[in-house]
Write a structure and sequence with these properties.
The strands form 11 sheets. Strands 11-1-15-25-26 form a 5-stranded mixed β-sheet. A 5-stranded mixed β-sheet has the order 3-4-5-8-9, covered by helices on one side. The protein folds into 4 domains: 32-116, Penicillin-binding protein 1b fold; 128-328, Penicillin binding protein transpeptidase fold; 410-673, DD-peptidase/beta-lactamase superfamily (Beta-lactamase, 3-Layer(aba) Sandwich); 686-741, no CATH class. With 743 residues, the chain is α+β, with helices and mostly antiparallel strands. The protein is 36% helix and 18% strand.
C-alpha cells in the first residue's frame, strides 16, 4: 500500500510541476508619460512621476531607474518596458525645461537630441485570482545572483548537494535551536518549502511531514536544481497587502522598495531574503528594526560562506533601510474606482472574468495619473466652496469627466467629489437634465443650414406654444428679462432661452434631435419643444461624448478608456485605436465655436476669464436646470475637454447656476491642469465680414459707426443691405458670392 502511495505521489509531482502555471492577475496600467521637446510638462511634474514609478534620486545617474535633479534639468535613465507596440529599451536622457514645458531632450553625453522618450507606465490596478495571490513570475536569469546567494545562505546552505532532504541541515538547525533556547533556524530545505507551498496544507502532523519528504525527493529526482529554485523564488509567500498575498521575490521588490528586483542593492536583497522565515514578523514596512536585524543575519551568513567581501558586508550592514514611499494601495485597485468601472465595462465586451483573473493580461489604459491627481487635489474643496446649502444639511455632489480633445481618450474621471469613492458612479450613471448644455446642438443645426449664420437676427421675446396634448408651454429666460432682437451668436453666448426657442422651432425639432444623435448621444430623444432648453437626460460621460465631437471639429470619436491589451509575455491581443467619423462639417463647427468662445469673453462664463487669462481662448457652455437642481459646465481647449456636474442625489435644489457652481469647479481643475488655448484655424471657405454692433431688422436703422467682425461661410454671408463691410463694392460682393456658388 505504501509503495502505491509513493508511486501516486511521484506521478502527481511530475505531472503537476511540469505543467505548473500560476493564476496570474491582469495588470492594468495608466497612460505612459512621453517626453519630447515642447511637451507640456514641468520639472516638478516629471520628478513626481519618477517618484511614483519608484525611481531613485541620486547624485549621478549610473543605472536604470535613477534620476538626478539640477536647476531646470532632470537627468535620468529609463528602465525600458514591453509595450503593446514593441519593446522600449532603457535610455539615458537629459531633460531641459522652460516653465511648464520641455525645451530640449538630449541623449548620451549631451550630444544627440532625442525625438521622444517614453517612460514605463504606472500600474494602477489588478484583477486578482480568486486565491488572492499575486506574483510577477521571473526566470532564474532575471534574478540577481546576490539574491540567490542570500536565500541559499540563510535558508538552505547545502541546496546544491542534497536530494530534497538534508539530514545534516536538520541536525545543524536542531543544535542551533538548542543553544539559542528557541527556534532560530529551520531544517527544511528549499525543496521542502516549495512542496509545502505548492501542494500541502499547513497542518503539522507526522503524515504531512512524511508526505512532504516523499514529494521533495520526487521533485529532486525529476527536475533540475535550477527549475526547483526558480519555482521557489516565484512561489514563496513574502507578505500581505490588504487582501492581496505577495508571492515571489520579484513582486516583493516592488511592494517593499518600489523598484524592480534588478535595481535593488545588496542590503535590500538581504532584506527580501530575510522574509521567508517570517514575512509578517520581519515586514520592513511595519517592523523596520526587526527587518534590519534579520537582514544583518543574512549578510553575516553570506560573508561566512564567502559570497560577499568584508567591504561589501560593512557597506550593506551600515545601510539605512529605505522602503517604498509610494502609495501602492492607492494605486493598486482602490485608487481610481470610477475610472476602473469604465475600464471593466470596456473590457467586458471582449474578455470574460476568468481570463482577467488567471491569464496575466496586461491592459494599457488612457488614464493620466497626473491629471487625475490634479483633479482630485481640488475637487472636494472646490465643491465645498460653491455649496449654497451647508454640507451638513445637503451634501452637494459632483462628477467630472476629462478627455483628450483630439482622440476621445478618457484622461480623468470622478464619480464623486470624494477621491477614491466606491459607491454610485455619477460620471457614468447619473442621468440628469442637461439644461443649456443642449443649446450648442440647436445652434449647430442652424449653422449647418444655408439659411442661418452668426448674424442671423433672433427674437428674444415671450412665446406661447401649444403642445400635442393641448397644453400651453410658456418658456422664460433665466432672469425673466427679454432682449428683443439679438444676433444668433449673442443668444448662445448669453444663453437666452427665448431666442433659442425661436431658432429651434425654425430649424425643426426633429433636426435638433438628429443632431444630438450625430454628436454621439445613443439614447433616443423625443422632439418636444422643451428639448430645446435642456429637457434631455444625459450622464456626464454622455455629455463628454457630445462635446468631444465639437472639440474634434465635427469628427466623432467614441470615448474609450482602454488603449491596448497584451498577453503576460507582451504579445499583442487587441489595440483599441482611434475610430473617427465626420458627422458635422468643420466650417459649421468653427462658427459654433466662435460663439462658444464668446461664452468666456462676453457671455455666461466671463467670470472665469480673468483666472484663465493665460489659457484663453477656450470654448464652453454653462448649464442650469429647473429650480437650479443641476449645475453644469462643459468646456474645452486645444488639448482637453472637461465636463463638470454638481447636484444633490435626491434631486433637490442646489441654489446654483452653471456659472456660480460647475464653472467655478471647472476653472479650479483646469487651472491646475493648465488647459491649453484653443488654436482652431478657420476652414478655407470661412470669411470675415463686419455687421452693426446692434442688430436691426430695418436697414434704414442700420448703424455702421459701431461694428463687429464675424466669421461666415462664403456661401452664407449676411445680406448686403445688413453688412457694414466697405472694402468691396456691392457689385464685387455679389460677384464673389456667385463665384462661391460655382462648383
Amino acid at each position: 500500500m505504501g509503495s502505491v502511495w509513493c508511486v501516486w505521489i511521484d506521478f502527481k509531482i511530475r505531472a503537476d510541476f511540469k505543467a505548473l502555471q500560476w493564476a496570474l492577475p491582469a495588470r492594468i496600467y495608466a497612460r505612459p508619460v512621453e517626453l519630447y521637446a515642447g511637451a507640456h510638462l514641468g520639472d516638478e511634474d516629471l520628478t513626481n512621476i519618477l517618484q511614483r514609478l519608484g525611481y531613485r534620486q541620486t547624485t549621478s545617474v549610473a543605472g536604470p531607474g535613477e534620476y538626478q535633479v539640477t536647476q531646470s534639468r532632470v537627468r535620468l535613465r529609463t528602465r525600458g518596458f514591453e509595450f503593446w507596440d514593441g519593446q522600449e529599451t532603457s535610455v539615458y536622457t537629459e531633460v531641459d525645461f522652460s516653465g511648464r514645458h520641455i525645451s530640449a531632450l538630449r541623449g548620451e553625453q549631451n550630444v544627440d537630441d532625442l525625438a521622444l522618450v517614453r517612460l514605463e507606465p504606472v500600474e494602477i490596478a489588478q484583477v486578482n485570482p480568486t486565491t488572492g495571490e499575486d506574483r510577477l513570475p521571473v526566470t532564474l536569469d532575471d534574478v540577481p545572483a546576490a539574491l540567490v546567494q542570500a536565500v541559499i545562505s540563510v535558508e538552505d546552505q547545502r541546496f546544491y548537494s542534497h536530494y530534497g532532504l538534508d539530514p545534516i541541515g536538520i541536525l545543524r538547525a536542531l543544535w542551533s535551536n538548542v543553544r539559542a533556547g528557541g527556534v532560530v533556524q529551520g531544517g527544511s530545505t528549499l525543496t521542502q518549502q516549495l512542496v509545502k507551498n505548492l501542494y500541502l496544507t499547513q497542518d503539522r502532523t507526522l503524515l504531512r511531514k512524511l508526505e512532504e519528504a516523499v514529494m521533495a525527493v520526487a521533485l529532486e529526482i525529476h527536475f533540475s536544481k535550477d527549475e526547483i529554485l526558480t519555482g521557489y523564488l516565484n512561489e514563496v509567500f513574502l507578505g500581505q497587502d490588504g487582501n492581496r498575498a505577495i508571492h515571489g521575490f520579484a513582486l516583493a521588490a516592488e511592494h517593499y522598495f518600489g523598484r524592480p528586483l534588478k535595481e535593488l542593492k545588496l542590503d535590500e536583497l538581504a532584506v527580501l531574503a530575510a522574509l521567508p522565515r517570517g514575512a509578517s514578523y520581519y515586514n520592513p514596512l511595519r517592523y523596520p528594526e526587526r527587518a534590519i536585524e534579520r537582514r544583518n543575519v543574512v549578510l553575516a551568513r553570506m560573508l561566512a560562506q564567502e559570497y560577499i567581501s568584508d567591504q561589501q558586508y560593512e557597506q550593506a550592514h551600515k545601510a539605512k533601510l529605505e522602503v517604498s514611499a509610494r502609495p501602492l494601495k492607492r494605486e493598486r485597485g482602490s485608487g481610481y474606482p470610477a475610472f476602473m468601472e469604465m475600464v471593466y465595462a470596456d473590457l467586458a465586451r471582449d474578455y470574460d472574468s476568468k481570463a482577467l483573473r488567471t491569464e496575466g493580461l496586461r491592459i494599457f489604459t488612457t488614464l493620466d495619473v497626473g491629471m487625475q491627481s490634479a483633479m482630485e487635489a481640488v475637487l472636494n474643496k472646490s465643491v465645498a466652496a460653491v455649496a449654497r446649502i451647508p454640507d451638513a444639511d445637503k451634501h452637494l455632489e459632483a462628477a467630472v469627466v476629462i478627455t483628450d480633445a483630439s482622440t476621445g481618450e478618457v484622461r480623468a474621471l470622478a464619480g464623486s467629489r470624494q477621491a477614491g469613492y466606491t459607491g454610485f458612479n455619477r460620471a457614468l450613471h447619473a442621468s440628469r437634465p442637461i439644461g443649456s448644455l443642449v443649446k450648442p446642438a440647436v445652434y449647430l443645426t442652424a449653422l449647418e443650414s444655408p439659411n442661418f449664420h452668426l448674424a442671423t437676427i433672433l427674437a428674444d421675446k415671450p412665446v406661447t406654444l401649444t403642445l400635442e396634448d393641448g397644453q400651453l408651454w410658456k418658456p422664460d429666460n433665466y432672469d425673466n428679462q427679454t432682449f428683443g432682437d439679438v444676433y444668433l451668436h449673442d443668444a448662445l453666448e448669453r444663453s437666452l432661452n427665448l431666442a433659442t426657442v425661436d431658432l429651434g422651432m425654425k430649424v425643426g425639432l426633429v433636426e435638433v434631435a438628429n443632431m444630438l444623435t450625430r454628436l454621439g448621444l445613443k439614447r433616443s430623444v423625443l422632439p418636444y419643444p422643451s428639448m430645446l432648453l435642456g429637457a434631455v437626460n444625459m450622464a456626464p460621460i454622455e455629455v463628454a461624448q457630445m462635446y468631444q465631437t465639437l472639440a474634434s471639429n465635427g469628427f466623432r470619436s467614441p470615448l474609450r478608456s482602454v488603449e491596448a491589451v497584451t498577453t503576460a509575455l507582451g504579445e499583442p491581443l487587441a489595440r483599441y485605436g482611434i475610430e473617427t467619423e465626420q458627422v458635422v462639417e468643420p466650417d459649421a463647427v468653427f462658427l459654433l465655436e466662435y460663439a462658444m468662445q464668446g461664452v468666456f469673453t462676453r457671455g455666461t462664463a466671463r467670470t472665469a476669464a480673468n483666472r484663465l487669462a493665460y489659457n484663453m481662448p477656450l470654448a464652453g457652455k454653462t448649464g442650469t436646470t429647473n429650480d437650479s437642481r443641476d449645475s453644469w459646465f462643459a468646456g474645452y481647449g486645444d488639448d482637453l475637454v472637461g465636463i463638470v456636474w454638481l447636484g444633490h442625489d435626491d434631486n433637490s435644489e442646489t441654489g446654483l447656476t452653471g456659472a456660480t457652481g460647475a464653472l467655478r469647479v471647472w476653472t479650479d481643475i483646469m487651472t491646475l491642469a493648465d488647459i491649453q488655448p484653443r488654436q482652431t484655424l478657420p476652414p478655407q471657405n470661412i470669411v470675415f465680414d463686419s455687421v452693426p454692433l446692434i442688430p436691426v431688422r430695418d436697414t434704414a436703422d442700420r448703424n455702421c459707426n459701431a461694428t463687429q467682425s464675424l466669421p461666415f461661410r462664403a456661401k452664407t454671408m449676411p445680406d448686403v443691405e445688413y453688412s457694414c463691410e466697405v472694402t468691396d463694392s456691392f457689385f464685387e460682393r455679389i460677384i464673389d458670392r456667385f463665384r462661391n456658388d460655382v462648383p
